[in-house]
Write a structure and sequence with these properties.
168 residues, alpha+beta, three-stranded mixed β-sheet, three-stranded antiparallel β-sheet, 30% helix, globular, binds zinc ion
Length: 168
């Protein structure tokens, strides 16, 4: 099996410390600015090497998607050119955007083997509704910062501004 990231275009090394949990309740797709791997463990919140748990074709899809998703997160953090960050915010807020539709497709594939939720990188709106199905999201404890979750759509949103999901 290949290793992440040397053989995957645009991939960055898995950040240390990486997840070493014997069992994982759930995976998190996406998450934070400057991530190495787009997959994290919801127990320890550290990154997981996708090649350890997913088939190679899915790892390739994940690498291609994260290349784009991470670039959009970078643009979101762009402070010199406001137009870029506004564009990036719209991409992440709009569930029909290309990056989000691809994420949902990946989510479906990953969920055939592992429970996985998507953290796009934008905060929840004040009404607390799911950006996809519009139903009320529920507060979930046990995260480094308070989050809202829609278990039907498998979406996770932090309750305040730009997410920086790190180990507690
Ligand atoms: Zn872990
Ligand atoms: Zn939903």
């Amino acid at each position: 099996m290949k290793e992440w990231p040397q053989d995957y275009f645009g991939a960055r090394p898995v950040l240390e410390p990486r997840c070493t949990c014997a069992s994982r309740d759930r995976l998190i797709l996406g998450a934070v600015v400057n991530y190495g791997s787009p997959l994290r463990c919801s127990n320890c919140f550290n990154e997981i090497d996708p090649t350890e748990i997913l088939e190679e074709w899915l790892v390739s899809s994940l690498a291609a998607w994260s290349h784009i998703h991470r670039a959009i997160l970078d643009l979101l953090m762009e402070v010199q050119e406001e137009a870029y960050s506004e564009w990036a915010r719209r991409e992440l807020e709009t569930m029909a955007s290309s990056v989000n539709r691809s994420a949902i497709r990946l989510l479906e594939q990953i969920n055939r083997s592992y429970g996985c939720v998507y953290w796009s990188g934008i905060a929840a709106t004040v009404d607390g509704r799911c950006p996809s199905c519009q139903s009320l999201m529920t507060v979930e404890k046990g995260w480094p910062s308070p989050v809202l979750i829609c278990s039907a759509c498998r979406l996770v949103l932090p309750t305040s501004s730009v997410s920086r999901l790190t180990s507690a």
